Amino acid sequence: MRRSAFTLVELLMVIAIIALLAAILMPAISGVFRTGVSVQCMANLHQIGLGLEQYRSQNKGYFPGGRPSGTSGALQESGNGLKIRPRYYVHLWPAMGPAFSEPSTTDQRQTLDNPAYLCPAVPWDDERNYPYGYNYQFLGNNRDNLAGSGTINYPVSMNDIKMPALTVAVADSMGTAADYPEDARQPYSAKSNDYDRYGNHGWTLDPPHLPGGNYVSANPDVAGHRSSVHGRHNGKANVLFVDGHCEALTPQELGYNVDEDGRVLHDGDNKLFSGDGTDRLPPTAGETGE
Q: pTM of the prediction?
């Protein structure tokens, strides 16, 4: 007579085989998923590159400023209304659509609604603690110059960039957590101001060589913490260059020096950030004593 059911031993053998196959396949499936996320991130950066190109074409070849100070140009168009002190990416709306469904004239820590502006590898959607950092120090630091009237380094024209294919525009950013050892960094938290958290002030991307000096603002606390790229895609950061092409590169390939404990040092090489292929420093805020 034919059996109509498994024995316990046979059932356990089947379960063991399934578990073994799952253990073998899971790394491959996980790798495919990570690759897909990286590809989507790269596609977003390509779109940001188109947004920057369109912005320049409509603004006499100039790059958008990183973020205006509170005393100049505080309210600017965002595609579907005025936005207070918009960061660089908000200006890309002609090519990407508005970043916010309801831009605020008072709230400076809004949550982004448009996924085209966000990296799918991380849940960072605060307009300040943002996943894609801008090489604003060389492409448009429009904060007030503390030494007198005017801005720190703005406007910057495409004509000022001598090597666009070798100049970083936007990249996966770690934020100010870069200034801390890897095991001392805290998880991302929306609306947080903690310097040791991933993504904090991530919209800014500091170049590798950034010695003492105020490059950011009048706040010495902010000026004392650097950001860097974030190797969130298998140890590499996705990078958009000024000419519009994208690459996945390690922090070291981009000129950053990383300590044994993971902290990003201040003595790297700016040749892929400066616009002219040299290790020059960006202009400082010009405060007294420099």
A: 0.86
